[in-house]
């Protein structure tokens, strides 16, 4: 590659590492179960949402313990957005 090229070897944008693994249906179902458990245990804030701290300390470790490809908070936010869109489609 010549200097000034804005793409790396895999054709993606500059600085991106191609390590993302898609969510499987099992991953999504596990996340939903963990979210339900977190709500049941009172981990939500006064406004009913989960804080980043609670997600990183309680949900992601359990999700990653059962998952070959670890998920980050950013992956969690992306999946939550997708789940919300799926829910909105059936309303």
TrEMBL record:
Ranges of residues in domain Myb/SANT-like: 22-91
Record Pfam families: Myb_DNA-bind_3
Domain of life of the native organism: Eukaryota
InterPro entries: At2g29880-like, Myb/SANT-like_dom
Full protein name: Myb/SANT-like domain-containing protein
Organism: Dipteronia sinensis
Source organism phylogeny: Eukaryota, Viridiplantae, Streptophyta, Embryophyta, Tracheophyta
